[in-house]
From TrEMBL:
PANTHER family: BIFUNCTIONAL UDP-N-ACETYLGLUCOSAMINE 2-EPIMERASE_N-ACETYLMANNOSAMINE KINASE (PTHR18964:SF149), ROK (REPRESSOR, ORF, KINASE) FAMILY (PTHR18964). The keyword ATP-binding does not apply. Belongs to the ROK (NagC/XylR) family. Keywords: Carbohydrate metabolism, Xylose metabolism. This is ROK family transcriptional regulator. InterPro entries: ATPase_NBD (IPR043129), HTH_CRP (IPR012318), ROK (IPR000600), WH-like_DNA-bd_sf (IPR036388), WH_DNA-bd_sf (IPR036390). It comes from Aeribacillus composti. Pfam families: HTH_24, ROK. Transcriptional repressor of xylose-utilizing enzymes. Residues 11-67 form the HTH crp-type domain. SUPFAM superfamilies: Actin-like ATPase domain, Winged helix' DNA-binding domain.
Length: 375
């Protein structure tokens, strides 16, 4: 009970700081003596600290309390098909250091080696603090079970990879492995475009397409954690062959991979960034982006009709091409949904750009740390 009350006090401070002891008691429903005792423990443990006096309501000015966001630091890693992005954040999700590495056609062993080296680099650049590195979160573009095993990541060509165990052998920290679209969705509702929304569908549009689902403010993962594999829903019967083995999948038509494949005859081995620049002057490239946007809208329409969300957020690398794909995406959604489907619906592009998933897994690690408590 004491541990639970302590967490209530801490979260009340995190949410409402600066706040006085008396106001904590009022917000939490705990008596003043309990609050005072738990606040003293949290100060001793450096989770919170006292700032200057607040406004008086007639008596002595109260001492205000603040959350110590520098008590520890979290590491978030997003393993993409053509990049690895690592960040160090404080306990409020502010990025204090990052490491980005573009990759191309690396073997499984090479990706694991690079992942380990990236984590080592992030640890080396973590500022000194009472609790140091409080956890490591890793996002992967694939189906991840509850034990941290990657069951299938077709775009990485991974199958039954016990990533959690591999990383545990290298680092003695709490480790979380999560699907990157789930992580991206959580990152957006914590720090990005979804902050004020409770029913959100996040579209992670990169080399593949993943979907993170937020229902009533909570991440929906399905019975076994496999929800959100909407990139492999069929949008064209007997269509293009997808790397998952099926045909006509959404990501075969609306992903970065689909874009690069379509543009091969114009500029072989082009990158997304190169094609975005070319689209300013090359109508054929611009047309490809518009086609990608149109197909993106078809898949989003299916999700709108299924979930009736408050908000759709389009994120990951294709969000860099917002100015090229937004209009055809919206046009496609309007064509494939009815007016009442669109009522009160907001469609936004990510505010966090490529950082959504890394921030999301970092936030998972922070949540885990703060729920455990210290002492």
């Amino acid at each position: 009970m004491k541990k639970k009350n302590k967490e209530i006090v801490l979260r009340t401070i995190i949410t409402n700081a600066p706040i006085s002891r008396a106001d904590i008691a009022q917000h939490s429903g705990l008596n003043k003596a309990t609050v005072s005792s738990l606040v003293n423990e949290l100060i001793e443990e450096e989770f919170i600290y006292e700032s200057g006096p607040g406004e008086s309501s007639g008596g002595r000015r109260p001492v205000m309390l603040l959350f110590n966001k520098k008590a520890g630091y979290s590491i978030g890693l997003d393993i993409g098909v053509n990049y690895i992005l690592g960040i160090v954040t404080d306990l409020e999700g502010n990025v204090v250091y990052e490491k980005h590495k573009s990759i191309h056609n690396l073997s499984f062993d090479e990706i694991i080696h690079l992942t380990i080296e990236t984590i080592k680099n992030l640890i080396e650049h973590t500022p000194q603090s009472r609790y140091g590195v409080i956890g490591i979160g890793i996002g992967v573009p694939g189906i991840v079970d509850k034990s941290g095993k990657v069951l299938l990541a077709p775009n990485l060509k991974w199958k039954n990879v016990d990533l959690l165990d591999i990383i545990y052998h290298e680092f003695d920290y709490p480790i979380i492995v999560e699907n990157e679209a789930n992580a991206g969705a959580y990152g957006e509702i914590r720090f990005g475009a979804g902050v004020n929304f409770h029913n959100v569908i996040y579209i992670s549009a990169g080399i593949g397409i993943g979907v993170g689902i937020i229902l009533k403010g909570e991440l929906y993962k399905g019975m076994n954690g496999y929800s959100g594999e909407s990139g492999h829903m069929t949008i064209v019967v007997d269509g293009e062959k997808c790397r998952c083995g099926n045909s006509g999948c959404w990501e075969a038509y609306a992903s970065e991979h689909a874009l690069l494949h379509q543009a091969k005859h114009i500029l072989p081995d082009a990158t997304l960034e190169e094609l975005i620049k070319m689209a300013e002057e090359n109508k054929n490239v611009k047309d490809i982006f518009q086609q990608i946007g149109s197909y993106l809208g078809i898949g989003i329409s299916n999700l709108i009709k299924t979930f009736n969300p408050q908000q759709i957020i389009i994120g990951n690398r294709l969000a860099k091409a917002k100015h090229l794909i937004e209009q055809p995406t919206i046009k496609s959604i309007n064509e494939h949904t009815l007016d009442f489907h669109q009522k009160d619906l907001q469609i936004n592009f990510s505010k966090l750009s490529i950082y959504s998933a890394a921030l999301g897994v970092s936030a998972f690690a922070i949540e885990n740390f703060l729920s455990i408590g210290k002492g």
